[in-house]
Amino acid sequence: MEIKETKKTYLEPQILLFALQTESPVLAGSPSVGFQVSVVPPTKDDDDTELIPEN
Questions:
Q1: 27 contact partners, CB below 8 Å, separation of at least 6
Q2: ∠ at Cα 39 (24, 44), nearest 5°?
Q3: Does position 35 have pLDDT exceeding 70, yes or no?
Q4: CA angle 35–40–51, rounded 5-degree value
Q5: CA distance 31 to 23
Q6: CA separation, residue 53 to residues 9, 46, 50 (Å)
Q7: 3-state helix/strand/coil string of 16-42
Q8: What is the tens place of the pLDDT at every residue in 8-26?
Q9: Which one of 23, 31, 37, 47 has the largest count of C-beta atoms within 10 Å of its C-beta?
Q10: Which of the two residues, 46 and 51, has the higher pLDDT score?
């Protein structure tokens, strides 16, 4: 009995790289916010906070 053996062809992986060296203009055209942005400094926390799981 003769067995026919077929092999699959190997496809070599290929990749293309594109180097982009330009900045995106997406944020440059964003409107300004309508309020004053400020950062509040953290306060000292001396109490031990008990973390209770909700499960």
A1: none
A2: 135
A3: yes
A4: 120
A5: 18
A6: 55, 22, 10
A7: CCCCCCCCCCCCCCCCCCCCCCCCCCC
A8: 888 888 998 887 777 666 5
A9: 23
A10: 51
Q: Could you give the CA distance from residue 17 to residue 36 in angstroms, rounded to a whole number?
A: 42
pLDDT at residue 10, rounded to an integer: 87
Residue that has been written with the tokens 């973390």 in this structure: 51
Instruction: Kindly provide the residue ranges of all beta strands, DSSP E only, lying in the chain, ordered along the sequence.
Output: none
Q: Which two tokens stand for residue 42?
A: 């953290």
Query: In angstroms, rounded to a whole number, what is the distance separating the alpha carbons of residues 29 and 23?
Result: 13
Encoded amino acid at 20, one letter: L
Query: What is the chain's mean pLDDT, rounded?
Result: 78
How far, in Å, CA of 43 to CA of 46, rounded? 10
